[in-house]
Protein backbone atom coordinates (compact mmCIF):
# COMPACT_ATOMS: atom_id res chain seq x y z
CA UNK A 1 0.00 0.00 0.00
CA UNK A 2 1.19 3.51 -0.70
CA UNK A 3 1.65 5.70 2.34
CA UNK A 4 0.05 9.07 1.79
CA UNK A 5 2.24 12.07 2.71
CA UNK A 6 -0.57 13.41 4.89
CA UNK A 7 -0.31 10.46 7.29
CA UNK A 8 2.27 12.14 9.55
CA UNK A 9 0.19 15.05 10.86
CA UNK A 10 -2.91 12.87 11.17
CA UNK A 11 -1.04 10.27 13.16
CA UNK A 12 0.38 12.95 15.41
CA UNK A 13 -3.10 14.39 15.79
CA UNK A 14 -4.48 10.97 16.73
CA UNK A 15 -1.77 10.45 19.35
CA UNK A 16 -2.23 13.93 20.81
CA UNK A 17 -6.01 13.41 20.72
CA UNK A 18 -5.75 10.15 22.63
CA UNK A 19 -3.42 11.66 25.23
CA UNK A 20 -5.66 14.66 25.62
CA UNK A 21 -8.77 12.51 26.00
CA UNK A 22 -7.03 10.34 28.56
CA UNK A 23 -5.77 13.21 30.67
CA UNK A 24 -9.00 15.11 30.29
CA UNK A 25 -11.04 12.25 31.74
CA UNK A 26 -8.63 11.87 34.63
CA UNK A 27 -8.86 15.48 35.70
CA UNK A 28 -11.26 17.77 33.92
CA UNK A 29 -10.00 20.89 35.61
CA UNK A 30 -6.33 20.78 34.73
CA UNK A 31 -4.72 22.19 31.64
CA UNK A 32 -2.46 19.67 30.09
CA UNK A 33 0.00 21.90 28.55
CA UNK A 34 0.73 25.58 28.26
CA UNK A 35 3.73 26.97 26.44
CA UNK A 36 4.84 30.37 25.31
CA UNK A 37 5.54 30.40 21.59
CA UNK A 38 8.25 32.13 19.58
CA UNK A 39 6.89 34.53 16.96
CA UNK A 40 8.39 32.35 14.24
CA UNK A 41 6.07 29.40 14.92
CA UNK A 42 4.19 29.01 11.59
CA UNK A 43 0.79 28.05 13.06
CA UNK A 44 1.01 31.03 15.40
CA UNK A 45 1.66 33.36 12.47
CA UNK A 46 -1.52 32.01 10.83
CA UNK A 47 -3.51 32.40 14.07
CA UNK A 48 -2.35 36.02 14.42
CA UNK A 49 -3.33 36.77 10.85
CA UNK A 50 -6.71 35.13 11.39
CA UNK A 51 -7.33 37.12 14.60
CA UNK A 52 -6.58 40.46 12.96
CA UNK A 53 -8.72 39.64 9.90
CA UNK A 54 -11.65 38.64 12.12
CA UNK A 55 -11.19 41.74 14.26
CA UNK A 56 -11.36 43.99 11.20
CA UNK A 57 -14.39 42.16 9.82
CA UNK A 58 -16.37 42.77 13.02
CA UNK A 59 -15.00 46.21 13.78
CA UNK A 60 -17.21 49.28 13.33
CA UNK A 61 -14.16 51.35 12.47
CA UNK A 62 -13.84 52.74 8.93
CA UNK A 63 -10.17 51.74 8.89
CA UNK A 64 -8.33 48.46 9.29
CA UNK A 65 -6.26 47.80 12.38
CA UNK A 66 -2.94 46.05 12.27
CA UNK A 67 -0.89 44.25 14.91
CA UNK A 68 2.00 46.38 16.15
CA UNK A 69 3.37 44.06 18.82
CA UNK A 70 2.66 40.62 20.16
CA UNK A 71 2.91 41.07 23.91
CA UNK A 72 2.33 37.41 24.71
CA UNK A 73 1.42 34.28 22.78
CA UNK A 74 0.49 31.09 24.59
CA UNK A 75 -0.49 27.76 23.18
CA UNK A 76 -2.89 25.94 25.49
CA UNK A 77 -3.80 22.29 25.08
CA UNK A 78 -6.81 20.97 26.96
CA UNK A 79 -9.41 18.93 25.14
CA UNK A 80 -8.67 21.25 22.23
CA UNK A 81 -5.89 23.53 21.09
CA UNK A 82 -6.06 27.22 21.70
CA UNK A 83 -3.86 30.23 21.13
CA UNK A 84 -4.11 33.00 23.72
CA UNK A 85 -2.83 36.20 22.26
CA UNK A 86 -2.14 39.55 23.88
CA UNK A 87 -1.66 42.08 21.12
CA UNK A 88 -1.13 45.75 20.62
CA UNK A 89 -2.98 46.99 17.53
CA UNK A 90 -3.10 50.32 15.75
CA UNK A 91 -5.41 51.96 13.25
CA UNK A 92 -3.98 52.09 9.73
CA UNK A 93 -4.61 54.46 6.83
CA UNK A 94 -6.23 51.61 4.87
CA UNK A 95 -10.00 51.68 4.67
CA UNK A 96 -11.86 48.40 5.26
CA UNK A 97 -11.19 45.74 2.66
CA UNK A 98 -7.75 47.05 1.76
CA UNK A 99 -4.79 45.20 3.21
CA UNK A 100 -1.70 46.08 1.21
CA UNK A 101 1.22 47.55 3.17
CA UNK A 102 -0.94 49.82 5.32
CA UNK A 103 0.97 52.42 7.28
CA UNK A 104 -0.32 53.58 10.66
CA UNK A 105 -2.47 56.64 11.24
CA UNK A 106 -0.79 59.60 12.91
CA UNK A 107 -2.29 62.81 14.29
CA UNK A 108 -6.02 62.97 15.01
CA UNK A 109 -6.78 59.52 13.66
CA UNK A 110 -4.05 57.84 15.72
CA UNK A 111 -5.54 54.99 17.73
CA UNK A 112 -3.89 52.21 19.68
CA UNK A 113 -5.74 49.35 21.35
CA UNK A 114 -4.74 46.40 23.48
CA UNK A 115 -6.47 43.16 22.60
CA UNK A 116 -6.76 39.70 24.03
CA UNK A 117 -7.83 36.94 21.66
CA UNK A 118 -8.45 33.32 22.40
CA UNK A 119 -8.35 31.38 19.14
CA UNK A 120 -9.54 27.80 18.82
CA UNK A 121 -7.29 26.01 16.35
CA UNK A 122 -6.97 22.82 14.39
CA UNK A 123 -4.03 24.10 12.37
CA UNK A 124 -3.49 20.84 10.45
CA UNK A 125 -6.89 21.37 8.85
CA UNK A 126 -6.59 25.16 8.75
CA UNK A 127 -9.57 25.58 11.07
CA UNK A 128 -9.56 28.61 13.34
CA UNK A 129 -12.28 30.24 15.40
CA UNK A 130 -12.31 33.20 17.81
CA UNK A 131 -13.51 32.10 21.24
CA UNK A 132 -12.88 35.37 23.05
CA UNK A 133 -12.04 38.85 21.90
CA UNK A 134 -11.52 41.66 24.33
CA UNK A 135 -10.04 45.01 23.31
CA UNK A 136 -9.47 48.16 25.30
CA UNK A 137 -8.09 51.55 24.29
CA UNK A 138 -4.36 51.55 24.91
UniProtKB/TrEMBL annotation:
Domain Cystatin: 34-136
Any GO CC annotation of this UniProt entry: cytoplasm
Keywords annotated in UniProt: Disulfide bond
InterPro entries in the cross-refs: CST11, Cystatin_dom, Cystatin_sf
Classification via CDD domains: CY (cd00042)
Domain of life, per lineage: Eukaryota
Pfam families in the cross-refs: Cystatin
Gene Ontology BP terms: defense response to Gram-negative bacterium; killing of cells of another organism
Family: Belongs to the cystatin family.
Name of the protein in its database record: Cystatin 11
Upper classification of the organism: Eukaryota, Metazoa, Chordata, Craniata, Vertebrata
Protein encoded by which gene: CST11
Amino acid sequence: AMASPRRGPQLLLAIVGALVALTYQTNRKSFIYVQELPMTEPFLVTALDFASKEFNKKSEDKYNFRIVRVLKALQVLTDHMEYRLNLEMRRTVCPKGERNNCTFQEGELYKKIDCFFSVFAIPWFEKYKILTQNCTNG
